[in-house]
Amino acid sequence: MLKDIIIAIQAYLEAHRFIVKHRLWKWIYIPGILYAILFGAGIYLFWISSGHAIDSFFSITGLKKWMNSVAGGWLKFLFIFGQVILQLVLLLFYFSLFKFLFLIIGSPLFAYLSEKTEAIMEGRDFPFSFVQLVKDITRGIKLSLRNALWQTVYIVSILILTFIPFIGWFTPLIAMLIECYYLGFAMLDYSAERNRLSTSQSIEFIGSHKGLAIGNGMVFYLMHTVPVAGWIVAPSYAVIAATISFYKTKHIKL
Q1: DSSP for 116-173?
Q2: Model-level pTM?
Q3: Phi/psi class of residue 196: alpha, beta or left (left: φ > 0; alpha: ψ in -120 to 50)?
Q4: ∠ Cα 175 8 214 (to 5°)
Q5: Do 249 and 45 form a contact (C-beta atoms < 8 A)?
Q6: 97, exposed or middle or buried, with CB in 10 Å at 0-12, 13-18, 19+?
Q7: What is the pLDDT along the chain (254 residues), one digit of tens a residue?
């Protein structure tokens, strides 16, 4: 898996050179600016609302009153730390739902960008087909809904673990790895579909190359640490990088 993660990370560097060489900037900025606006506004509003929701939950259950009456400093620290961990996991849960919604909306553009990338790499054209485009969009929506369901199951399980002392501290890391995997999964499936892999075959292929999905998702989220600029380029870079990493791997696997 480590080898696949390295391939996925290196693919981002190749994606940047690829974009510059073939002047694909319009495919970066058009969806990227919309994504950045929605992401920034959504994260701000959710962080505030989730904080109020958690505070209300602890007040209603009496936990907040009990902790205020506790004299021990360590218990208060653990309580506050637990609140932060819970809010981070909720934020990742929101991020996953936002991601799937954006993937559904942007599936026509991402499918086209992935196809264009592979066409340039192979030096040939993929003839445009409206019927095929509709199939790509339908498949992308179905797969996004399927992944959203499974990821929700995992995140809810992780939310329960956040209430367990010490173990709950590691839940944001687990949630982040799951988030990376499913983001990379969606990006890789555009290439899998174009190479005529059925949904079950795509799931099997990506499942056997989890590192490609996790590595793609890791860099995608690391790019969000650069405000605005990182948000703008992250989605399209992820699509192109996933196409490059899939292209490299398919010659070995397929």
Answers
A1: HHHHHHHT------HHHHHHHHHHHHHHHHHHHHHHHHHHHHHHHHTTSTTGGGGHHH
A2: 0.79
A3: left
A4: 15
A5: no
A6: middle
A7: 888 999 999 999 999 999 999 988 888 888 888 888 888 887 777 777 766 776 776 677 766 666 666 655 666 666 667 677 777 777 777 777 777 777 777 777 888 888 888 888 887 766 666 776 677 777 777 887 888 788 778 877 877 777 676 776 777 788 888 889 988 998 998 888 877 788 888 888 998 899 999 999 999 989 988 988 998 999 999 999 999 999 888 765 54
| Contact criterion met (CB below 8 Å) for 4 and 217 | no
